[in-house]
Write a structure and sequence with these properties.
Elements (H helix, E strand, L loop, with lengths): L1 H10 L5 H12 L5 H10 L4 H11 L16 H13 L7 H11 L4 H10 L3 H12 L8 H13 L3 H14 L4 H14 L3 H13 L6 H14 L3 H13 L6 H13 L3 H9 L10 H13 L3 H14 L5 H13 L3 H13 L6 H13 L3 H13 L6 H13 L3 H10 L5 H13 L3 H13 L5 H13 L3 H13 L6 H13 L3 H13 L6 H13 L3 H13 L6 H13 L3 H13 L6 H13 L3 H13 L6 H10 L6 H13 L6 H13 L7 H6 L9 H13 L3 H13 L6 H8 L4 H6 L12 H9 L1
Helix pairs in contact: 2-4, 4-5, 5-10, 7-8, 7-9, 8-9, 9-10, 9-11, 10-12, 11-12, 11-13, 12-13, 13-14, 13-15, 14-15, 15-16, 15-17, 17-18, 17-19, 19-20, 19-21, 21-22, 21-23, 22-23, 23-24, 23-25, 24-25, 25-26, 25-27, 26-27, 27-28, 27-29, 29-30, 29-31, 31-32, 31-33, 33-34, 33-35, 35-36, 35-37, ...
Pfam family, one: PPR_2
InterPro entries: LisH, PPR-containing_protein, PPR_rpt, TPR-like_helical_dom_sf
Family: Belongs to the PPR family. P subfamily.
Length: 773
């Protein structure tokens, strides 16, 4: 051990930073000769990286003074490696590290180093061994050793050291560089390290190295899977084409996919039609990508054209194509195309999964193709699949839509169905069309077979309630209780809704109180019906109390019911309470109608709380609500005061933008008030939109607009209103005319305190006389 340390001190001197700095200074100041300096440098050959770092970093201008014979590694690599070496100095004395170094010292070869690095699980230890080898005399790392450590650094997220060593490897250009870069890209891509793979690709591109198509495709595929931006994808695609790597069908499929992803279907289709020119033949994946993208972007008809083109080409379709495309056409309601592909798949002898059978049956039933649906159902049974409950439900729903209830029951009986859901579907279908005699027979049959549940009874109860037959509903409830099923929220909701529609509000309230005592929540329809009923008879306090209870339980209301409650609350003078109701509803995701907003706003305006109105307006506009014309007019006019005229101008612009135009009285109020505050320019573009509105403009308004705009420095906009005046045969008043010809002092006219309105009645002769003078 002592002998090893002695040799280490002789052969591997570790010079301090200050010692090497002094040596460089001596050389530069001519205190020692270059030959003597060279002998010292040869003695410390193992530390040339440190010396080069100090020379380049501390004395950059002295590098040209002597011809160094040795290889200088780049500072971008050596600096971070040296820092890592110093910070990990405590590991140098470890037995394991010394043992590894000793085993490599006399037989340091690339293959043995790779074996050692592979057997070292700790990344820091591997990196230290790699750096130690870098300093050994006569040893040069191979592309394989570089690639091994670069891969491990990249996989562990040490991007800085990875990039430094990658740059060093590419600059050295060792043998087998291209295959190793290929392998790095493939390995990084397989481990979803696409940023690191791109780093390798860019270094290879900088030297115009020709990578394999396999590696390029792996990187392109990774970008698509990761959802990288289109420019990133095109960066790789362009670079591979530049160096002569010819794209294959997989490359072009990925290109088509990213083009579809950015909505450039025209370019994607162009790539499809140009594939033959690139010596490629579109495969089933090509058409699958296009069909899926077109359908998902509501271009179903175009996807059908692509399908027909594919069939005309005689493209060989794989099983994956059928599995992916058939559901797409089913979801797009293109049952003809889905059926055609389904038959093709069956004819080619490919195995069809249960899910595909189920999807086809559902699609055909929704399009009322019951005969075809039953035919596929029979095929499913013939190949040994057991139909799921959802398949029976789909077929029963199809029969019910056609009004073929007897056929639906026969279908269930013939197939010996012993599941509740298909019978419930039939029961619901009978109740929806008022076939209660058949519904009662159905539930009796279900009960005798033990196939009823709480949903079965509720379907029948709600059906009677919707018909207003509450008596029969209660008879069913009694039968349900005898059958050991207790009424629940849907049961109470059905009865309450029925009583509300019948105008029996007190009975509805009694049932609601029973449900409330059991801490139940009503559905949205029932809650809305009850609150609307209470508002209709002006029982606002009870409606408000019910609102807070229902929203507290997470129940929802219709926008109309909420609006009705808010309006009635405002009508009894409780505007602040209406604001609280609105706030509570919004926090629970319930939104009111524009009319309710308008009611609250008018109420706030009557209370002179214009400032409290602004947050409500902002919230309303954010949600896309649009006020009606009268409400806009009321609010804008209320804001035409000195303190809120800016907000009034904004609302006026919003009103015009939403397609509502003011009457003459409102227009005058907006024009005169914005002119008085020198804010006419804020509404000028909206005013231009109302120029052609019949009966809105008159000489008085036009003169005010022209005078105000010129005064504010908007002469171009003022000229449009002047043209309008002249077209209508009107002439400017003396003050406006004087301002236009430039002989009126704005400051003097403002100081006189005379109103601009005093000049509106001047005659044409006076204006002409002034012009002649």
């Amino acid at each position: 051990m002592e002998e090893l340390e002695k040799r280490g001190r002789i052969e591997h001197m570790i010079w301090t930073s200050s010692s090497i700095t002094n040596l460089v200074l001596c050389i530069t100041r001519r205190k020692i000769g270059i030959p003597l300096a060279s002998s010292y440098l040869n003695a410390v050959r193992s530390n040339l990286d440190l010396l080069s770092y100090l020379i380049l970093s501390r004395a950059p201008n002295t590098l040209v003074l002597f011809p160094l014979k040795f290889h200088l590694y780049s500072t971008t690599v050596i600096a971070p490696l040296h820092n890592s070496l110093e910070t990990g100095q405590h590991m140098l004395n470890s037995r394991k590290y010394e043992s590894v170094v000793l085993s490599l010292k006399n037989r340091l070869q690339s293959g043995r180093l790779i074996d050692v690095l592979n057997s070292t699980s700790d990344l820091n230890s591997s990196l230290r061994i790699f750096k130690w080898a870098l300093l050994q005399k006569g040893f040069h790392h191979s592309a394989e050793t570089y690639s091994l450590i670069i891969l491990r650094l990249g996989l562990m997220g040490d991007h800085q050291n990875m990039e430094a060593l990658l740059r060093e490897m590419v600059q050295m250009r060792p043998p087998n560089l291209e295959p190793m870069l290929d392998q790095l890209i493939l390995s990084f891509s397989q481990n979803h390290k696409f940023t690191e793979a791109l780093e390798v690709f860019q270094h290879a591109s900088s030297l115009k190295l020709r990578l394999s198509l396999l590696a390029c495709n792996a990187l392109l595929r990774g970008f698509v899977l990761e959802g990288r931006s289109f420019p990133s994808f095109m960066l790789v695609y362009k670079e591979m084409v530049k160096v002569g790597i010819i794209p294959d069908v997989e490359s072009l499929n990925l290109l088509i996919k990213v083009l579809c992803g950015i909505g450039r279907f025209d370019l994607a289709l162009d790539q499809l039609h140009r594939m033959n020119k690139k010596c490629c033949t579109p495969n089933s994946e090509t058409f699958e990508i296009l069909i899926a993208a077109l359908c998902s972007n509501d271009k179903v008809d175009e996807s059908v054209k692509i399908l027909n083109e594919m069939l005309e080409r005689g493209c060989t379709l794989d099983r994956q194509f059928y599995i992916r495309v058939i559901p797409i056409f089913c979801w797009s309601n293109k049952f003809d195309e889905a059926t055609k592909l389904f038959r093709m798949m069956k004819d080619t002898g490919l195995q069809i999964e249960m899910g595909l059978y189920s999807m086809m049956i559902q699609c055909l039933c929704e399009n009322l193709m019951l005969n075809d649906a039953v035919g596929i159902f029979e095929e499913l049974s013939a190949v040994g699949f057991v139909a799921t409950s959802s398949i029976y439900v789909d077929i029963v729903n199809g029969y019910c839509k056609l009004g073929k209830f007897s056929e639906a029951m026969s279908f269930l009986d013939e197939n010996n169905v012993w599941e509740i859901e298909p019978y419930n579907a039939l029961l619901r279908g009978l109740c929806d069309v008022g076939r209660f005699h058949g519904a009662v027979l159905c539930i009796k049959k279900m009960f005798t077979r033990g196939l009823t549940n709480i949903f079965s009874w509720n379907f029948l109860i709600r059906g009677f309630c919707n018909e207003g037959n509450v008596k029969s509903a209660f008879e069913v409830i009694a039968r349900m209780i005898v059958s050991s099923f207790m009424p629940e929220e849907r049961t109470y909701s059905a009865v309450i809704t029925a009583y509300c529609k019948m105008g029996l509000l007190e009975k509805a309230l009694d049932i609601f109180k029973q449900a409330k005592a059991k801490n139940m929540c009503m559905d949205s329809e029932t809650s809305s019906e009850l609150i609307e009923g209470l508002c209709g008879v002006k029982r606002i306090e009870e409606a408000t109390e019910m609102f807070y209870y229902l929203t507290g339980k997470g129940c929802s209301l219709s926008p109309w019911a909420l609006s009705m409650l808010i309006q009635e609350t405002c009508l009894v003078g409780k505007v602040c309470e209406a604001v609280k109701l609105h706030s509570k509803a919004t926090s629970n995701g319930i939104f009111c109608t524009p009319m309710a907003y308008a009611t609250i706003m008018v109420g706030l305006l009557n209370l002179k709380k214009e400032k409290d109105l602004l947050p409500l307006l902002a919230q309303m506009f954010t949600k896309g609500c649009i006020l009606d014309g009268p409400t806009y007019a009321t609010i804008v006019c209320s804001f035409c005061t000195k303190s809120t005229i800016r907000e009034g101008a904004v609302l006026f612009n919003k009103m015009i933008h939403d397609g509502f135009f003011p009457d003459s009285k409102m227009l005058e109020m907006v024009v005169f008030n914005t002119t008085a505050s020198s804010l006419l320019n804020k509404v000028v573009h909206s005013l231009i939109k109302v120029i052609n509105q019949a009966g809105l403009l008159n000489p008085r308004i036009c003169n005010t607009i022209i005078y105000g705009l010129v005064k504010e420095g908007y002469k171009h906009e003022a000229s449009k209103f002047l043209d309008q005046m002249l077209e209508n045969g009107w002439v400017p008043d003396p003050q406006t005319h004087g301002l236009l010809v430039g002989n009126v002092n704005l400051e003097e006219s403002d100081e006189t305190g005379e109103s601009h309105e005093n000049y509106f009645d001047d005659r044409v002769s006076n204006i002409l006389a002034e012009g002649l003078n």
